[in-house]
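PROTEIN–LIGAND DATA SHEET

This sheet pairs a single protein chain with one bound small molecule, zinc ion, given as SMILES. Inputs appear in the order they were entered. The predicted three-dimensional arrangement of chain and ligand is reported afterwards as a token string under its own label.
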Amino acid sequence: MSSLTLWLLLFVAIATGWLLGLWSARFGRRPNIDDEATLRERLQFLFTNYSDEAIESFVETLAVSGDTVNLHLSIGAHFRNKGEVDRATLIHQNLLARPELPSRYSSQVTYELAMDYLAAGLLDRAESLLHELMGSRDYGRQAAQHLIEIYQQERDWEKAVQVAITLVEAEPSPLRRKQLAYLLCERAEKDLARDDRFTARQRLTEALGYDPACIKALLLLADMHHHDNKPKDARLLLLSIFDQKPAFAPEAVKRLVKYAREQNSEAQLAKKLRKLYYSTPSTSLLLAMVELERRRQGDGPAIALLQQELTSRPSLRGLLRLIEITGPEHQGSGTRDRLVSRVGEMLLQNKPVYQCTRCGFSGHQLHWLCPSCKTWESVEPVQGVDGE
Ligand SMILES: [Zn+2]
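PREDICTION REPORTED AS:
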């Protein structure tokens, strides 16, 4: 290649680069502070290299405009996540007070300030802002959900129900409907506590209208029917739980056995439970069947039933019951059985009876509202050889 050709090629390369640069500057996308990647880089640089005080001073001097709002919000969120709620609050209050804040951001900034107040435990201030946001297209549903959580915490069921109705109207999802049904149950329990059975029944019926599978409403209504001497109605509601949500069948079994004993209808119930056991087996159901068999036919048939079912579906509670019923007068009992019982009981003592299917929270008590993830009806009886 001649030197002239080399010079020509170099000239073409430089000219092409210059033209591309010119085109990019005129028509291409210039980097903007609002670009997600640029924003992330700047934030990372800020948080790594500067103290909280320096960042706070920087935010105070940073202009408020459509280009910088996201930077303000990200720094505010950073402080809140670090537990520096006061700093986050100041940033969001400052933004809201600035007339330069573009109106399209006012709901977002209000929402962030409400989150600061919630994090600081200033519930009344958070409540006021969240009410303002209820009509917002982008933040209305989130605001309503936070309001319900505040009212749940304060056990103000009436206000919680009001907000939940608005939320269900905007978003009639099964989860929202279940939440509303449970809030109505809480109100019904308050009515029952002051012996207003008429209103309680209305609320429970309303709850089942929103969620026909609301277990607590079914149990409370069954109790009311039992109280009103309507055993058939009570039994039908309790039996429906086996179809609606079999995981909660153990809660229905306790009541079915108690009511049948009072009504002297144990033979009828024994037949029904046997049928149900083959479609929805559980340890509680088996132990109820064994108890009914024992009362009606004696220890022999009850032990045979228990042994037969434990062979195909072993359970620790079933085994302990078997050792208990067989007693010292039966073969194989004595020191060895007492040891097995003791170890089994110790194992059960340390095992949770209920567990949340959403967050894994576990314990020995049935919570209709999970204390950890605040979901209704997500805490269920534990399944498996040491559970149901
Ligand atoms: Zn949970």
